[in-house]
TrEMBL record:
InterPro entries: DUF3048_C, DUF3048_N, YerB-like_sf. The chain crosses the membrane at residues 6-29. It comes from the Bacteria. The keyword Transmembrane helix applies. This is DUF3048 domain-containing protein. It comes from Candidatus Falkowbacteria bacterium RIFOXYC2_FULL_48_21. The keyword Secreted does not apply. Keywords: Membrane, Transmembrane, Transmembrane helix. Residues 73-196, 226-336 form the DUF3048 domain.
Length: 341
């Protein structure tokens, strides 16, 4: 009897020990799982916050470049008429100004870094004085197809004028588009023009201030930027993707893609308010490009209210917050949406 009692006690003690061991193991396993989950989250955040350190960065977009000299830039006048869509090459631009050319149609002044060998850019359209003023910020080739009288008068004194009317061999007309929405150029054609005319693509222009992306935990939640260009066909929205820290462009309610299906994305979006007035029966505009005005700057999921400022045609248009500090942009593409008052 005593022996049986001893055996029973031993079994009970063993069972308790086993339960404790199993319970302790389960707790340890739960703890290990939690630690692994925390580690994975930390790795994900570290990758999202990874900063690329460059020895040399480009003045146009803050991205790295190799080689002894900076690649430089070139500018192309790209149209946005409904019959010109989808455009070619615009998703590869480093900087884009969008403004109404004649109501309600918008047009793009696209600035390309010369280290991007863009094979097809367009449709290329005509110049206007305010686009010429913005192009002069860069002292670089400006490709266009004719222009208003006022624009052509300005360009007569501009060294880097690349007008298709007089330089057709650096452009081509596509048989798949109807005129006047069928003129295209490319990096190779513009490089050839620069070589033939003894131009440089380097461009002696001022740089903006650039910074790395904000850490994931420090990014904001301003998810949408809407720009009203008078009609639904030209309505613009930029939607923020927090994980990528990028803005995706929508036009007419749909993702804005180029001719090869590449979605247009930007690291920074600025809305620039300027004075304007209609100057003729055709609807051509006189648009403010110098002085200063209100602006909203979007980056890292946040909005900063402030001002834009530019004193002379040789200076860059710069953006400042409401404390007067110059904006430090994220490295990458920037779009400037120009709104008329």
């Amino acid at each position: 009897m005593k022996k049986e009692k001893y055996i029973l006690q031993s079994v009970l003690v063993g069972a308790v020990v086993l339960l404790v061991a199993v319970g302790g193991g389960f707790v340890c396993w739960q703890k290990w799982q939690a630690e692994q989950a925390a580690l994975q989250e930390k790795i994900k955040q570290t990758l999202a916050e990874k900063i690329v350190v460059c020895e040399k960065i480009k003045k146009i977009d803050g991205l790295c470049y190799d080689g002894e000299s900076e690649p430089g830039v070139y500018a192309v006048m790209i149209e946005n008429h409904s019959e010109a869509r989808p455009q070619s090459g615009i998703a590869d631009a480093s900087l884009v100004y969008e403004a109404i050319v004649e109501a309600p149609i918008t047009r793009f002044l696209a600035i390309f870094s010369a280290d991007r060998k863009v094979e097809k850019i367009g449709p290329v359209r005509s110049a206007r004085p305010f686009y010429v003023d913005w192009a002069k910020e860069f002292g670089a080739p400006y490709a266009h197809v004719g222009g208003s009288d006022a624009a052509l008068k300005q360009l007569a004194a501009y060294k880097y004028d690349l007008n298709e009317f007089f330089n057709g061999k650096y452009f081509w007309r596509s048989s798949t588009r109807t005129p006047p929405h069928n003129v295209y150029t490319s990096f190779d054609f513009i490089s050839r023009a620069a070589a033939d005319m003894a131009w440089t693509l380097a461009g002696d222009f001022e740089t903006w201030l650039f910074k790395p992306d904000a850490a994931l935990a420090e990014r904001g939640d301003v998810e949408s930027i809407k720009v009203d260009f008078l009609t639904p066909a030209y309505a613009v929205e930029w939607r923020y993707e927090k994980d990528q820290n990028e803005y995706v462009r929508l036009q007419s309610g749909h993702a804005h893609v180029d001719s090869v299906g590449k979605i247009i994305r930007a690291k920074n979006v600025a809305v620039m308010h300027v004075k304007s007035k209609v100057i003729d029966d055709y609807g051509r505009l006189d648009v403010q490009t110098l002085g200063n005005g209100a602006a909203e700057i979007f980056l890292d999921g946040k909005m900063f209210s402030g001002k834009w400022r530019r004193n002379t045609l040789n200076e860059r248009t710069r953006f400042f917050n409401d404390r007067g500090d110059e904006i430090r942009f994220n490295a990458g593409a920037t779009w400037i949406e120009v709104k008329y008052e």
